[in-house]
Amino acid sequence: MKKYLIRARMSLLIVLCSFSAGSFAENQSRFTLKKALQLTLEHNPKLTRYPLYIRQIEGEIQQANSLPSPMAEIELSNNETRLTLSQSFELGNKRQNRRAFSNAKQQQLHAEFTIIRLDVLAETSRRYYQLLALQKQQSLQNIRIGQEKRALKIIKKRAQAGIVSQADVANMALRLARSNTTLKQLQFSIEGERIRLASMWLNDGSELKNALGKLSQLPKLPTEEQLSRLINKQLEQLPDYRLQVALLRLADNQLQLEQANSRADINLGLGISHDQNTHDPSLVFTAAMPLNFMNVSGAPNRGRINSALAQQQLSLDNIDIKRRELRIELARIQQALAKDRYLEKQITSQLLPLASEVLSTTQKAYRQGQYTVRQWIDAQGQVFNLEQDLINSQVRIFNQVLELERILGQSIVSAQ
Question: Which runs of E-coded beta strand occur in 90-167?
Answer without folding.
Answer: none
